[in-house]
Specification:
156 residues, alpha+beta, 5-stranded antiparallel sheet, 4 helices, 21% helix, 31% strand
Amino acid sequence: MQHQKSEKKKVVVTLCRAFPVTHSLAGKPTEFEGKLKEHKKIHTIRYNKNGVWDKRYKDIASGKKYLSVREWTGRPYNSEQREFARYEKIGLQHITMTYGSDDTVPQVWIDNKKVPVEVVAKNDGLSVENFVEWFFGNSKSNVFEGVVVHFTSFKY
């Protein structure tokens, strides 16, 4: 009886190929794939509902899984996904962003350390204006809590 080495399971993260319909640049290319390959996008920011990313991170860090970075080939959720990057190692940090009526730009804390929004936006592959609109554009909430999923060894 032969034992076949089972292939590692994947954790899928989908990057938007175009700005979402809720954004003023709706439909225009984000160019995230190129920015990722040129190291101009070194992370993605995600909600962490019920600590889902903490578990995914542990699975990747332990070698059980890898991160599969994909984009939709057409309309999101109504088209195939295409993988364009794989990561055996990732970093994970917790992020809180607040955007009060008195703030000119959102205030950002990563692992409880204050970080300028300009730096976070640039590392996410967006201008500050597009970053702010992406996360707070039509949101009733002025607080975002989630995680930064790092594609490199960079940490804030």
